[in-house]
TrEMBL record:
Highest taxon above the source species: Bacteria
InterPro entries associated with the record: DUF4349
The entry's keywords: Coiled coil, Membrane, Transmembrane, Transmembrane helix
Protein name: DUF4349 domain-containing protein
High-level lineage: Bacteria, Bacillati, Bacillota, Bacilli, Bacillales
Compositionally biased tracts (Polar residues): 30-48
Coiled-coil region: 169-216
């Protein structure tokens, strides 16, 4: 019996060895076929799947928005009401002041009536000269204490949000351009092109808003109202009227005095002639008497 076991043991070992090799080869072939099928399987991507790929694709490290510590950005607006005694003089003085602060005039208007003269000016001044120009206005001559209302709007948070959105939209634009270069189907190209147009339009809107806010921060806005009230207007009018009336009255009195003098002289003329003749006769008579003696 032991002799029988020793005889068949080597044969069993050899049989098990070949069975093991055969199973491994079969497993490798099945794995290889599965891999080839997954690689060679054609891609069928719909436009909706393209949009999903665009939205789900994460930003790379270089494309992610960089968090910065922004400085405070404030939009300053000043509303000033000036009550003056001479509108034209105050307006000219104001128009001479703002160019010294590198400012510029946006618009100007005037309104003349029988009761008052009023006007409005909108002026932009660099933000670094805001306080200096505001102080200078209060020193203008011929004005009462002005009414001043200053407001400041902090747009720092909005600017940070806009720049973050801009970075995201620009990264989206780059991804869409890359997908457009890789797309083969017309449907994919149309879908990507539509997304690209919308993204580029949003980029332009964001850039326009950033540019507008930057200009508002860099230049403060002054809304200045100039008002010459009725009493000041009447005072100037009354003074001019009095001067005119005084001049006219003086001229009339002068002419009247000359006329009166002439009339008086004419009235005295007969008496003057009579007295002159009597004096001449008396002189001649006295002279005749002296010669007779």
């Amino acid at each position: 019996m032991s002799h029988y076991k020793l005889r068949y043991t080597p044969m069993l070992i050899i049989l098990l060895f070949f069975l093991t090799i055969g199973c491994e080869q079969s497993s490798n072939e099945m794995s290889l076929e599965s891999t080839e099928q997954s690689v060679q399987q054609p891609s069928d991507t719909s436009p909706d799947q393209v949009d999903k790929m665009i939205k789900q694709e994460p930003l790379s490290v270089s494309q992610q928005p960089i968090k910065q510590s922004p400085t405070t950005q404030v939009v300053y607006t000043a509303n000033i009401q000036l009550t003056v005694t001479n509108f034209e003089r105050s307006k000219r003085e104001l128009e001479k002041r703002f160019p010294a602060y590198q400012g510029y005039l946006v618009n100007s208007s005037e309104n003349h009536s029988t009761e008052a003269i009023s006007g409005h000016l909108t002026i932009r001044i660099p933000h670094q000269h805001f306080q200096s120009f505001l102080t200078d206005i209060q020193k203008m001559s011929g004005t009462q204490r002005p009414n001043i209302h200053v407001t400041g709007t902090d747009v720092t948070e909005e600017m940070v949000d806009l720049k973050s959105r801009l970075n995201g939209k620009e990264a989206m634009e780059k991804r869409l351009l890359n997908l457009m270069n890789q797309a083969d189907k017309t449907s994919d190209l149309l879908s990507i092109s539509k997304q690209l147009d919308m993204t580029q339009s949003e980029i332009e809107q964001i850039k326009g808003r950033i540019q507008y806010l930057t200009n508002q921060v860099d230049y403060a806005t002054f809304h200045i109202s100039i008002h010459q009230p009725k009493n000041a207007l009447n005072t100037d009018t009354a003074l001019n009227k009095q001067l005119h009336e005084a001049l006219a009255s003086g001229w009339v009195n002068f002419k009247s005095a000359i006329a009166s003098s002439l009339i008086f002289m004419v009235k005295l003329l007969p008496w003057f002639i009579t007295i002159s003749l009597l004096g001449l006769i008396t002189y001649l008579f006295i002279r005749y008497l002296r010669k007779s003696k």
